[in-house]
Amino acid sequence: MKRILSVLTTFLLISSAAWADAPSKTGNDREVKRLIFLYNHPQIKAEDLYKTVQSLMRYADAGQKLAQRQVMRESLKNDPHSDSKNGFIKKLKKSCEQKEAEACMLLAEIYTEGRFGLTDPESALNHYEKAADLGLKEAECHLGMMYWKGETVQKDDDKALEWIKKAAAHGDAECNRFLSHVEPKREP
């Protein structure tokens, strides 16, 4: 019964709190408290954690004091020196280590795009590979495109096509379209 209640509570909190669209300047303390609860929930999935952090940051940027304190406490602001202090990054790393593919993918995107001020191509590649090894087709396709374009890795058409074909076989539409244009050109 406790387990069912916990799952139901988490579901309700995630569905109502994590997708807050427009925080007011003064903010809604109750909503921010729910977001903080979600952020601290030990079983929150990476995607929900990301949405929760985004909502907290929007509230903080709008001037909501409780959200600003949470953002400061967890070092969520853009700072290239905050990798080891950033609570969100720590949580994602732990989830990735526990084989949550979406967490690995989010870390890869963070390190690729420089979110939170963190840019690390080697870490990005490692996390894309972890996500792909865990069967995330978007990571497989992204790796293929990285090798195809030579982005942050040495250009390698064979390795690129290996990843792209794998993603296409798993149903990735982008990689399927890409293959339909590239494969006929590679045939002798």
Order of helices and strands: HHHHHHHHHH
Q: Could you tell me how far the N terminus lies from the C terminus, measured between alpha carbons in angstroms?
A: 64 Å
Total helical elements: 10
**Care to count the β-strands?**
0
What structural class results from the helix and strand content? mainly alpha
Overall average residue pLDDT: 80
Shape: elongated
Taking the sheet with the most strands, its summary is: none
The percent range for helix content is 55-70%
Would you write up a description of this structure?
The protein has 188 residues and is mainly alpha-helical. Helix content is 69%, strand content 0%. The protein has ten helices and no strands. It has helices at 2-17, 29-40, 46-61, 65-73, 87-97, 101-113, 121-133, 137-149, 157-169, 173-186. Helix 8 packs antiparallel against helix 9. The longest helix is centred in the N-terminal third of the chain and has 16 residues, at 2-17. The chain is elongated, with a radius of gyration of 19 Å.
